[in-house]
Amino acid sequence: MRLPELFHIGWVVRDCAAAQEELSRRLGAGPFRSAGDESRFDQALVYGKPTPFSLKIAFGVLGGVLIELLEPLDDRSPHAEFLAERGEGMHHLAYLVDDFDDRLAAARGSDLLIDGTGPGNPVRWVYLDGNATRGTVVELLERTPAAETLFGDFLALTGG
């Protein structure tokens, strides 16, 4: 599966505000824009089972690349599991794709870590388990006018 240009790198952190401050101070990252105090994912399936979870999310720029900071707000998400097992760090590579249905069909051979294609999601998205990609989770987001609107402020951070 040939992927388009990278949309963002997802980074799991213990404290979103502290990570923004440290990345800004140490590496010159920023500016950052928050997705709000809490992003709730009530319609997501985690390994095929309904599993609502919440995250604090912020997007920023690091060396011209959009990064997404993800702070788990409960213990139900794969992000919380990642944090408990590995600590803070890079969690996934994300791509906005035009041909989402075709890519999802091709990816069905892989385990879906998170399935965010349900009717309650403003943008259809999935996390592909990292077993097929040497441990790195791949996120596919459907590129639609709604996605462009939702992610427009974050895309503007990189001029994209």
UniProtKB/TrEMBL annotation:
User: Is the keyword Iron-sulfur in the record?
Assistant: no
What are the UniProt keywords, alphabetically?
A: Metal-binding
Q: Which GO terms describe its molecular function?
A: metal ion binding; methylmalonyl-CoA epimerase activity
Residues in VOC domain copies? 5-143
Q: Does the keyword Metal-binding apply?
A: yes
- Superkingdom is Bacteria
| This protein's name | VOC domain-containing protein
Question: Which organism is this protein's natural source?
Answer: Amycolatopsis alkalitolerans
